[in-house]
Design goal:
Layout (H helix, E strand, L loop, with lengths): L10 H4 L4 H51 L24 H4 L4 H12 L6 H4 L23 E3 L5 E2 L5 E2 L16 E5 L15 H8 L17 E6 L4 E5 L8 H5 L8
């Protein structure tokens, strides 16, 4: 029987990768990473934005309940009447509660009394990169508030001026779907809370900013847009480039008849 010798492996078959081939592989991997990271950031940003918008809608639901139980009036922006937290279960310490504005305390109190989950997680926002006074990044669990209210939450005094220490009647908001009640705001200094109130004059400057990073109080934190809770308790995102569409009545909730 005739046997055939097994051919020996050539040197080309036995060699490993050449330096050039390795560099090509590394370049391809680098290219794939450079493509993947931006896509991941966009997806992650979209997810965080959706969660923040869900938080705002949750806050809106509680505001609606509050109004129905308080003569159809919105929560006070600023108040002095102490709330009795003795028999209320909430995931905040006393010193943390003291750092929160009155309007959030009322909603947390109502939510806790009714068994709703309206604690720390609802008033904060995923994806924040805040730093404390030492420059250390905040742990997400240590952030207490990431939203602020507009003048539409303030009540009218005898001179027809909006005052945060007076309650606002829901009926006095003329165009609810286009009136902003609560929105994403920037970190107040180096503390664990955001700016809790934004006037129209302050917002007007921010909406005129050329870049999202140039705004002072309004936080265009996701896709250069700001998530808002409207007075009809719906959610909306307003992009920086569309800021010219936002006018004073969107912030104060009245006097729409004067707009032509």
């Amino acid at each position: 029987m005739t046997t055939h010798p097994t051919p020996k492996n050539s040197s080309a078959d036995q060699r490993g990768f050449t330096l050039i081939e390795l560099l090509v592989v590394i370049a391809i991997i680098g290219l794939l990473v450079s493509i993947t990271i931006p896509i991941y950031r966009v997806v992650n940003e979209g997810t965080n934005s959706a969660r923040s918008l869900a938080n705002l809608k949750n806050i809106g639901s509680t505001i609606s309940i509050y109004a129905s139980e308080n003569n159809n009036q919105l929560p006070l922006v600023e108040g002095f009447d102490p709330l009795d937290w003795t028999n209320v279960t909430i995931d905040l310490q006393e010193e943390e509660l003291e750092k929160l504005p009155y309007w959030t305390k009322q909603l947390m109190y109502l939510g806790s009394k009714s068994g709703s989950d309206l604690g720390r997680g609802v008033f904060t926002c995923p994806g924040l990169r805040w730093k404390d006074e030492s420059g250390k990044k905040y742990d997400p669990d240590d952030i207490l508030l990431a939203y602020g209210v507009t003048e539409a939450m303030s009540g009218f005094d005898e001179d027809d001026e909006l005052v945060p220490t007076l309650p606002r009647a829901v009926a006095s908001i003329e165009n609810k779907p286009n009136t902003i009640l609560v929105l994403e705001t920037k970190q107040d200094g180096t503390g664990p809370t955001s700016y809790s109130q934004v006037t129209w004059k302050e917002a007007m400057v921010d909406f005129d900013s050329k870049k999202a990073s140039e705004s002072k109080l309004v936080d265009f934190r996701f896709k250069k847009g700001v998530n808002c809770l409207m007075a009809d308790y719906s959610g909306r995102s307003i992009r920086l480039k569309n800021g010219s569409d936002v006018e004073e009545p969107n912030w104060t909730g009245y006097d729409y008849e004067s707009i032509e």
